[in-house]
Design goal:
The complex is a heterodimer. Chain A is of the alpha+beta class. Chain A has 17 helices and 25 strands. By secondary structure, chain B is mostly helical. The chains are: A alpha+beta, B mainly alpha.
């Protein structure tokens, strides 16, 4: 009797607590929601900011090594933006603009010699001089250090020479137009030669030129950077300190922004974007990502990524790999708009190609998008002579979000005559499997690069470093090579349009959606910037007066 | 006593050795190449091969193990290939956080669990027992992550009286440290409080009907003296065992609480290391956890003799 009473009371108490929680959690959205104040870039927020203060910026993961040569993560690029400037940067229109360089690179007639002039009088955070010799040291390290992630990006560079105190010459093996865009990322970050030769691991105490300088790091917790008095434009830097916190959980990050425990949240979840409408103490900065998400199909990855493609064997061989019609049917059966609405609450954007509409080299051809047509999909399957429903397996990362995406794709593809067997796999294991070619299809994406070459060449050229599809098309290889060789922007735009058209015929990848870069910003701070590259910039940010 | 301690020490070393072997082989049995995972989306086969070579992941397993063990003996647990930071430093930063969290959670659990357990046993079949049982049921039923989220919503967002998350070292700012640790400690301690309450209640019920308690009452001792001095003290043996076992579990199992409250403790360190296949970090934290378990169990065994003089470690149990 006592036990049953207690059990009943426990249930009552639990129900009351749940009701209280539901009321509390609902409070933000029951009230008439306001549209979040959204900024597409940064200049909308021109409120005056005062000097001083510490800004806390929550990232969605703990960055990897703070060494530009070996760094690999997108979150890490946010830290570098504060402490390590590059030869070039991008502006709010995603144009490449000089940063440590004093002007755009001068390219010789044959396209094989690039001359870069540097700003003068610059100092690293350790007080040493940033000059052409330092640039050569950094570029050579990027090109040659064992384990460097920049090697492939700078593979076209034959050598770097110092042509004067403030001038470097880069000799190329072949013309390479994306070089300036590549130097607007980590490959263009210049490190203090004194710090590099100090014997300490550079990644644990990085020294570059930047509005802030590295102060300390605690694994899994925080990275602190402080205002650098040696910075050439120190007067514009308002904040005393910037603290990067690693908070992987989306809700926890958002709750911290709401409670005022952080001032800026990186990568706001689409779920919280909706909730943000009811919160008047914050605003969102949103813009289109340069990357994409989609399905990669194994066409001929028989001996591993980066190797020669071949003919697949069971269980990965079959009409999906052999028949473009089957892949086209799969592409037509997925309703990208509905996927965006149902899974991403309409926040993201449907995508049919690897090049963001925001990119400078985008074109109508690059944005062409076949319409959702399940009837046509079934017809194509009939023409291909395959049994309907056509069975295929798809590896998906095993997070709850990815499972939801996988289920939505499976359900849509069923309308077009497909029976997708989802294979939820832990991400590290999925990378292993797909690199080795042990998959039929894989739902995966790419964070994107400013120059379309970075979204194409590694993935779709023969033996590309990330060509897990084992795709090979001489025409695509030739167009990408031609686009690398010419400095003519219109010509490059046209060539990339042709590449996208061919990819939509061959479909080694079915592009599905393009994420948004979403930054949550407390209204207590102003002049925070984020461009299409998804990197937050705090060089002029501060607390509002 | 000396021989007992020596025996336990030898056992501990063997256990630790076995733990290193199991962990070393276990993490390598996981699918997922560490170098490929480190390379992330920007994988370049050449760079992956170089990472493997740089960290010795391409060496035969016995070579890797001997190298790891040799360094571990000298206190060098290596560096994280992902962050380049020293594993020992990372552990030294994370350890105080988790220890403090576990200690505070244990304090919360003991305060609530012991008092509720005693009340439930002493005031049977009344509102007090009913209330204590309800709290215990709730504590066992409500998942940590839910309680944590509700705590954050209520106290950080709506009332704004406590921070939502984060950690400030006690020596830097004791008040701020406690403000940030209160919620995590309550969340983590609730489940354990329920367990302690149930153990205390059942042990007390048994003790209260024992002959020695009846004798104590017959001798005219005050009710409070009988309950606290005789019944509770004898009941503490079982409770102490639970506390000892659960303290180890708190240290290694605080991952959910640490994640939600963004505490840079052991749990988060371990979880992230597993996901990123950070072998040196995983090996380091597991070695520490295993050591913590062994030391705590040893201390609990020694504590028995303090609580109950009839028990003498290494000697006869009367």
């Amino acid at each position: 009797m006592t036990r049953s009473r207690a059990r009943g009371a426990g249930r009552l108490l639990a129900a009351a607590t749940t009701a209280l929680a539901l009321v509390l959690t609902g409070c933000g959205s029951i009230d008439e929601p306001q549209q979040p104040q959204q900024q597409s870039g940064s200049d909308v927020d021109s409120r005056a900011v005062k000097s001083g203060g510490t800004l806390r910026f929550a990232l969605d993961a703990d960055p990897d090594k703070l060494d530009p040569t070996v760094a690999r993560t997108l979150v890490g690029r946010n830290v570098f933006a504060a402490i390590c400037e590059k030869l070039y940067d991008v502006n709010d229109k995603l144009e490449v603009v000089p940063q440590l360089a004093s002007g755009m690179p001068e390219v010789s007639q044959d396209g094989k010699t690039v001359t870069i002039k540097l700003r003068t009088g610059l100092k690293f955070a350790d007080g040493t001089t940033m000059d052409a010799a330092a640039v050569k040291t950094s570029l050579d390290r990027h090109r040659t250090l064992e384990g460097s992630q920049r090697k492939s990006e700078l593979a076209s560079v034959a050598d770097v020479t110092v042509a004067g105190q403030d001038t470097v010459t880069i000799n190329l093996k072949e013309p390479f137009a994306p070089l300036a865009a590549i130097l607007a990322d980590r490959a263009g970050m210049i490190m203090s030669p004194a710090a590099l030769s100090s014997g300490k691991d550079f990644g644990t105490a990085p020294v570059c030129v930047g509005p802030f300088k590295f102060a300390s790091r605690i694994a899994q917790d925080r990275i602190e950077v402080v205002k650098d008095p040696n910075y050439y434009d120190a007067a514009k830097v308002k904040l005393d300190k910037l603290v990067f916190l690693a908070i992987p959980d989306d809700n926890t990050r958002f709750n911290n922004l709401r409670s005022g425990d952080i001032e800026v949240e990186y990568d706001v979840s689409v779920v919280n974007v909706e909730e943000a409408k009811g919160v008047d103490t914050m605003r969102l900065i949103m813009n289109d990502s340069l990357g994409y998400q989609g399905i990669t199909i194994n066409l001929g990855n028989v001996s591993g990524v980066g190797k020669d493609p071949g003919t697949l064997a069971a269980p990965y061989a079959g009409p999906l790999a052999a028949e473009a019609k089957v892949r086209r049917a799969l592409a037509l059966s997925i309703d990208r708009e509905a996927l965006n609405r149902s899974v991403f609450r309409g926040v993201y954007a449907p995508a049919c190609g690897p090049i963001s509409a925001a990119a400078q080299l985008s074109s109508d051809a690059a944005q062409a998008c076949p319409k959702h047509d399940p009837a046509e999909a079934k017809k194509l399957l009939g023409e291909a002579g395959v049994t309907v429903p056509f069975k295929l397996s798809m590896v998906i990362p095993n997070s709850p979000d990815n499972r939801r995406i996988g289920e939505a794709i499976k359900s849509m593809a069923a309308e077009g005559g497909f029976d997708i067997q989802l294979e939820p796999t832990e991400f590290a294991s999925a990378l292993d499997l797909t690199d080795a070619g042990k998959f039929q299809s894989f739902q995966v994406g790419w964070s994107g690069r400013v120059d379309p070459d970075g979204n194409l060449a590694p993935f779709v050229t023969t033996r590309g470093s990330q060509n897990i599809a084992g795709y090979s098309n001489p025409e695509v290889d030739a167009w990408i090579k031609e686009a690398r060789a010419t400095q003519d922007v219109d010509k490059r735009r046209e060539l990339y349009g042709k590449v996208v058209g061919k990819l939509q015929e061959d479909l080694p990848l079915i592009y599905l959606w393009r994420q948004k870069n979403i930054l949550g910003v407390s209204n207590k701070v102003g002049q925070v910037k984020m461009y299409g590259d998804g990197i937050a910039r705090f060089d002029t940010a501060g607390f509002v007066d | 006593m000396g021989r007992y301690l020596l025996r336990r020490l030898v056992e501990s070393i063997i256990t630790l050795f076995l733990a290193t072997v199991v962990v070393f082989l276990g993490i390598r049995a996981l699918p997922g190449d560490p170098a490929r995972t480190l390379a992330g989306e920007e994988s370049d086969p050449e760079a992956v091969a170089e990472i493997n070579a740089a960290y010795g992941f391409d060496q035969p397993l016995p070579v890797q193990y001997v190298r790891y063990l040799g360094k571990a003996f000298t206190g060098d647990l290596g560096t994280s290939p992902r962050t380049g930071l020293s594993v020992t430093d990372a552990i030294m930063h994370a350890l105080p956080v988790t220890l403090e969290l576990a200690a505070l959670a244990m304090l919360v659990a003991i305060l609530i669990g012991l008092s509720a357990g005693v009340i439930a046993a002493v005031r049977r079949r009344g509102p007090a027992e009913w209330g204590a049982n309800s709290v215990a049921l709730l504590g066992l039923s409500v998942p940590n992550f839910w309680l944590a989220q509700m705590g954050v919503l209520l106290f950080a967002i709506y009332f704004g009286v406590l921070p939502a998350s984060g950690y400030v070292p006690f020596l830097d700012d004791p008040v701020e440290n406690l403000r940030r640790m209160i919620m995590p400690a309550i969340v983590l301690g609730t489940g354990l409080a329920a367990l302690i309450m149930r153990q205390t209640r059942s042990s007390m019920l048994e003790a209260l009907t024992a002959d020695y308690v009846r004798t104590a009452r017959a001798k005219g001792l005050l009710r409070r003296q009988v309950i606290v001095g005789h019944a509770l003290r004898n009941s503490l043996i079982v409770v102490t065992t639970v506390v000892g076992l659960e303290l180890g579990a708190l240290i290694s199992g605080a991952v959910v609480t640490e994640s939600i409250f963004v505490l840079p403790g052991f749990g988060r360190l371990t979880l992230d290391a597993v996901f990123t296949r950070d072998y040196p970090m995983i090996q380091g934290v597991v070695l520490f956890t295993a050591t913590a378990y062994i030391v705590i169990n040893l201390l609990v065994d020694l504590l028995y003799s303090v609580i109950d003089p009839r028990i003498r470690v290494g000697g006869a149990v009367l």
